[in-house]
Design goal:
This protein is an alpha/beta fold. 27% of the residues lie in helices and 19% in strands. It binds S-adenosylmethionine.
């Protein structure tokens, strides 16, 4: 999978060199490129924002600069994700859907966000005909300072679903949100007693059917079933 992210703070993406995502890049499963939006400006101040039409507080990110940055990334079958608190809420279903994409492009806003025409422009028929999809996505009902953290959240949730990223693919089979409303059972490891607290007896029984039944009962209780 190819991933591009456009931002005015490329350093925010340093964690992508770590852990499973770092390894997946070394193994060629993932190719991630971070682009500095300011490199696509044409003025001495490298300005990416301007005052909003209609008035109001704050600054809006300029469509021209975003267009220059995004045009070269818009290859056929790309998914352009515009991060905004006003977008559709990201969840495990969307992560699964996006894990089937061959190319994700994250547009990370700052200030009051990105000029609305950017999303409209790349949603036009001529792009749709090339399999290019535009989505406005929010990672939750709160407002962040910028889209970088949201892109990191999405990249981690999506890429761990790709074959070869997680060491043991069985880890993905029985985990929270694998189905709507499913929450995983609690997990324990050694020692058997810690600070006077014992592991549930059933887990020591060796009776796999009984353990599976207990786990699904606990999982259902957690999910409110
Ligand atoms: N004025 C915007 C509004 O009220 O909807 C908020 C802009 S926010 C301060 C700046 C940028 O942070 C947004 O353009 C977006 O890229 C990102 N952002 C903030 N909250 C987000 C969220 N919940 N999900 C995704 N991106 C978010």
């Amino acid at each position: 999978m190819d991933i591009d992210a456009v931002t005015i703070f490329p350093d925010y993406f340093a964690p992508l060199q770590l852990s499973l995502i770092g390894k997946a890049q070394e193994n060629g499963i993932l190719d991630i490129a971070i682009h500095d939006l300011r490199e696509f400006t044409d003025d001495n101040h490298h300005s990416v924002d301007d005052t909003p039409y209609g008035g109001g507080a704050g600054m809006v990110m300029k469509a021209e600069v975003w267009g220059e940055a995004l045009d070269p990334l818009m290859t056929p079958n790309s998914d352009l994700i515009i991060l905004t608190p006003a977008g559709r809420i990201f969840d495990q279903r969307m992560a699964e859907e996006l894990a089937n994409s061959s190319h994700l492009i994250f547009a990370c806003g700052r200030y009051e966000g990105i000029d609305a025409r950017v999303g409209e422009y790349y949603s036009q028929e001529s792009f749709a005909e090339q399999g290019i999809k535009v989505r406005e996505v929010s990672i939750g009902n709160y407002v962040l300072g910028g889209g970088e953290v949201a892109a990191l959240v999405m990249i981690e949730a999506i890429t761990r679903l790709l074959p070869g990223v997680i060491g043991n693919p069985d880890s993905l089979v029985e985990e929270s949100h694998v189905e709507d409303g499913f929450l995983e059972y609690p997990n324990y490891t050694k020692p058997q007693t810690w600070r006077g607290m014992a592991v549930p007896e059933i887990l020591l029984s060796g009776n796999h059917a009984a353990i599976a039944k207990w786990r699904s009962h606990i999982a259902a209780t957690r999910a409110g079933g």
